[in-house]
Amino acid sequence: MIEEIKKVEQEIKEHLEKINSKEELEKFHNLFLVKKGKIQQLFDRMRELPREEKPAVGKILNELKKLAESRYREIHEKITAEIESTPKVDLTLPGRVNFVGHHHPIYQTMRQMVNIFTELGFKVAEGPEIEDEYHNFDALNFPPDHPARDMQDTFFIKSDKKLLLRTHTSPVQIRVMHSTTPPIRYIMPGRVYRNEAISARSLAEFHQIEGLYINRRVTFAELKGTMIEFSRRMFGENLRFRFRPSFFPFTEPSAELDITCFLCGGKGCRVCKYTGWLEIAGCGMVHPNVLKAENIDPEAYTGFAFGLGIERVAMLLTGIDDIRMFYINDLRVLQQF
Ligand code: PHE
After folding, report:
1. Is 284 in the pocket of ligand 1 (CB under 6 A)?
2. 280 lines ligand 1 (CB under 6 A)
3. What is the per-residue pLDDT for 40?
4. Averaged over 146-161, what is the pLDDT?
5. Where along the chain do its domains lie?
6. How distant, in Å, are the alpha carbons of 34, 66, 82, 181, 275 from that of 79?
7. If DSSP codes are grouped into helix, strand and coil, which group holds residue 125?
8. Ligand 1 pocket residue status of 189, Cβ below 6 Å
């Protein structure tokens, strides 16, 4: 029996020397220290011993058990401490490159436009995309039977036609006139909606920047100066300008602004449809009826307003010739800008 105990002791010592990992330690535990392990087996065999030998053998066995247990605990502590002190991250690994997004080209264009107008002294205001007929049409001097109110162009929200998706940013003019007093100098960027067939040139949802300046003795010359200065800063110095007479219910006189095509220098190309000119804004002097609707005295104050299409400007700047490209969210397109 003593012989056998010595053998197991030898085995235990050999095992202990080789333990390097938690798994190996676990194996050791399973082999010697569990209920059916080798040490317990020796204890069980003590039954076969003559009575007078039992105490001595029992002592040796108990010492062996204690030794195995305390070595087990020591190694367990050592390994646990090692695991805890090894860093969880491997600092030698190369860094992971995160995907970094960027602003959408439409938003980039809008920011550029807003920045220029801010430099020119305009403040920024915003209004709701869900509007009522008063702000979108009535206050802007649209006659009750104006074709633009038609179901064809306007997305009405309620069948009673009182609520709608704004068809332009001009209703924000009315809101700004309502909440401030002249002098008023604001730009109003935002999303607008029109019930239009979707094509390479038009979408049912797009963006505009509205401009409004109201003060004493504001003239058409100031409108021209503002539009020309904006265009030069946005598109380049060497531009020529053309103000064509036009019509909007809320401006009188009204004009559309063309600039020489900065892609071909006015010679004619695919983008300007071989005319040499690009149409970039609708504008005009604020109609007296609009001022009156918001209790601004048209005898004392005059003003100008303009509306620029952001997608249109973005198309000109990026060379994208299909407006739908901005919204199909194809990263191969968007990552280029
Ligand atoms: N609201 C007009 C449009 O959407 C543009 C415009 C704004 C024209 C301001 C004149 C003055 O077409």
Report:
1. yes
2. no
3. 87
4. 78
5. 2-85, 105-334
6. 20, 20, 5, 77, 81
7. coil
8. no
